């Protein structure tokens, strides 16, 4: 299993939060996907925001979150907005 912190964008704090919701490896994050992981994080930590969702997707896609294509960011933003 690959450590979450070895992924782009994943620091110790987001790794700790992911571990709390039982996502403990890069493979688990990739399998569950950014949206489901974000949803679970949001239920546990209501203050997380859209940037966290971008961070998770960037980690899965192995790119810096601020380099996500505009259409991906728009899809993720729409998803986040629906949760409000």
Description:
The chain is mainly alpha-helical and about 80 residues long. It has 5 helices and no strands. It has helices at about 10-20, 25-30, 35-45, 50-60, 70-80. Helix 3 runs antiparallel to helix 4 (about 50-60). It starts with 11 loop residues before the first helix and ends with a helix.
Rough shape?
A: globular
- Tally of alpha and pi helices: 5
- Average pLDDT reading: 97
**Rounded Rg:** 12 Å
Helix-strand sequence? HHHHH
Q: Please tally the β strands and state the result.
A: 0
Low-pLDDT sequence parts: none
Largest sheet: none
Q: What is the topology?
A:
Elements: H1 12-20, H2 26-32, H3 34-44, H4 50-61, H5 70-82
Quick structural gist:
Helices cover 62% and strands 0% of the residues.
Any key phrases for this structure?
84 residues; single chain; mainly alpha; 62% helix; 5 helices
């Amino acid at each position: 299993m690959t450590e979450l912190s070895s992924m782009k964008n994943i620091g110790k704090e987001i790794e700790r939060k992911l571990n709390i919701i039982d996502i403990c490896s890069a493979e688990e994050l990739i399998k569950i996907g950014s949206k489901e992981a974000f949803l679970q994080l949001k239920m546990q930590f209501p203050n997380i925001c859209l940037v966290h969702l971008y961070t998770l997707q960037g980690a899965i896609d192995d790119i810096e979150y601020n380099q996500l294509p505009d259409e991906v960011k728009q899809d993720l933003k729409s998803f986040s907005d629906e949760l409000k």
